[in-house]
Amino acid sequence: MPNQIPFIPDNAPFTPEQRAWLNGFLAGVFANCAQPAAAVDAKPSHRIAILYASQSGTAEGLARKLAKELKAQGHLPAVSTLVGYSPAALAAEKYALILASTYGDGEAPDGVQPFYEELCLEHFPRFEGLSYSVFALGDRHYEHFCEFGKSLDAKLAALGANRLANRVDCDVDVDEPLAQWKADVLPRLNEAAAIGKSREMAASIVAETEKPAPNASFTRTNPVFAPLVDKKDLTHKKSTKTTLHLAFSIEGTGIQYEAGDACGVLPQNDTNLVAEILQALRFNGNERVKCGGEEPITLHDALTHHLQITRVNRKMVTDYANLGQCAPLLLLLDPKQQPDLDRYIYGRGLIDLLFEYPGVVQSPEELVAMLPKLSPRLYSISSSPLAHAGQIHTTVAVVRFNAHNRERGGVCSTLFADRASLSDRLPLYIQPNKRFRLPANPDAPMIMIGPGTGVAPFRAFLHERRAIGASGRNWLFFGERSAETDYLYRDELESMRSDGHLTRLDTAFSRDQQDKVYVQDRMMEQASLFWSWLQDGASVYVCGDASRMAKDVHAALQGIVEKQGCMTAPEVEEYVQALKEEHRYHRDVY
Q1: For 10, what's the count of Cα atoms within 13 Å in the CB-facing half-sphere?
Q2: Average pLDDT in the 148-171 region?
Q3: In the 8-state DSSP scheme, what is residue 549?
Q4: For 530, how many CA atoms within 13 A lie in the half-sphere containing its CB?
């Protein structure tokens, strides 16, 4: 029988890329079968460090997906968080791809700051042997957009490291910037590393394809449509705002989550607003447009489910102004006019541009090109998987306001409040939050600080601890405007306090007395007891607003440590840092 080069048939359980590579590999083996073994051995793959600085889990998730992609290409990726990572370890790497989120006012995520501070030491060695690239994640609504990623990139370059590709800065919609970054980085990485293929890789591919396919996981691109089974107001009808308790059924879906995780919701825009936009543009909504997917969809579908229409940003104003040569808008885009542009943008949406500068958009394609994608909304889960089996609960503050003579609201919160009814199925997925978990020791005490909807994960924690029979003491600081109108989960919390499950419950209702009182004030009032809990090994959790509350609570914590522990400022910093390193100080702030 004549010798033939074997091949992998099209119906074999391989991807096209894997099949093509295996055919080439086997052809090479047979073509060189008479040569010494060393001559046909592939070159060893090079190690590539995939490093992430993540606050909510997005950067971590992207890093792990990138590692899988690199592994499939024959690389040897090593994924690691920058929490606890040392600059010396980075200096020892040859290749590094870094996904860096920015938190708060341009800061590194929790736990990453020590790495960056050590990197900035003047005596630190050079990085000439390192080739790297940074993918920076942030939110353009914040002043210091992607600041940590920018600073990290600049510092590594200053230390002599070689950029494989320029940094890419990403807003909340990551898909297109990530694709751009990978398109720049991966070819250069392959060229630099000159990675060969090996027989071991072939074996690993075969072994991987022989494994049974795992159950499909639900993600932002593949959500589960969960029915809404409960919706009720947590605030009194006399309150100046509305906060909702929502429950979704996940019975039979296989979805799993832990207390501390977040629920991602894919929102949809108000169809009345969509209709108004189509009328202003004189489009009928049936026009077919490309909106990220492979197949065209109707313009009405794109505006309802896929595109952000309730807010404008600088890029959108720029595109609109250039398209219509709108002189007033072009003047606002001068960098010197940034404060005026900020004032103009605040509270405006697409409909305002269409009314103020009509006739600019002439085609559906022009409209779709200038609109950002509608991003998922994340809500802390307020249920326990043990105490509330088969359900996910969330606690949502409904955003409503009047701006430029128009009533407006949050896309997702008004969907819940006004347009979603019981039994309606909404697209959800779980966003894990591995850094916001209950103490590993169920006997350890726990201090929770969660004003407003920040109480959501602590409701989950309390129910979970009760379900597992944890004996650790529980202390909650809760704050809102008024006890009469805004005391969220009042009956549950006071019942837990009455039966002893909630050891202490300290409330701060800012408008119930002449001088406003906040949770940080209650912390300082109980400074001595707070310190004694810390000395007993208590873990501290903070959830809620990042811009003010989290900073004020952090300052109060430092003040308690300073006064009760009789420490100097450097000692306070060292003590609080030790709490973080011991996983006893956790923040989930937004």
Answers
A1: 0
A2: 91
A3: H
A4: 29
- Summarised one tens digit per residue, pLDDT across range 521-567 is 999 999 999 999 999 999 999 999 988 999 999 999 999 999 999 99
Q: Which domains does the chain have, with CATH numbers?
A: 47-208 (3.40.50.360), 224-267+376-431 (2.40.30.10), 271-370 (1.20.990.10), 446-589 (3.40.50.80)
- pLDDT tens column, 244-303: 999 999 999 999 999 999 999 999 999 999 999 999 999 999 999 998 877 899 999 999
Residue pair 135/181 in contact by the 8 Å Cβ criterion: yes
CB 308 within 8 A of CB 373: yes
CA-CA distance, 32 to 233, in Å (whole number)? 74
Element (H, E) at 368: helix 364-370
- What is d(CA 535, CA 584) in angstroms, rounded to the nearest whole number? 12
> Are the C-beta atoms of 91 and 162 separated by less than 8 Å?
no
Distance between CA atoms of 240 and 238, rounded to whole angstroms? 7
Task: Please give the model's pTM, rounded to 2 decimal places.
Answer: 0.72
Q: Which long-range contacts (CB under 8 A, 24 or more apart) does 412-418 make?
A: 412/265, 412/267, 412/377, 413/244, 414/270, 415/267, 415/268, 415/270, 416/231, 416/244, 416/246, 417/242, 417/244, 418/270
Mutual orientation of helices 490-498 and 456-468 as an angle, nearest 10°? Answer: 40
pLDDT digits (tens, 9 = 90+) for 102-128: 987 788 887 888 888 888 875 556 788
3-state DSSP call for residue 369?
helix
**Cα 357 from Cα 217, distance rounded (Å):** 45
How many whole angstroms separate alpha carbon 63 and alpha carbon 86?
Answer: 18
* Buried/exposed 248-281: b ≥16 CB within 10 Å, e otherwise: bbbeeeebebbbbbbbbbbbbbbeebbebbbeeb
Residue with token string 């100097």? 568
Q: Encoding tokens for residue 274?
A: 């969509």
* Closest of 374, 208, 394, 239 to residue 306, by C-alpha: 374
- Of 550, 533, 547, 539, which Cα lies nearest the Cα of 578? 539
459, amino acid identity: R
Q: Model confidence over 47-67: pLDDT tens digits?
A: 899 999 988 888 988 999 999
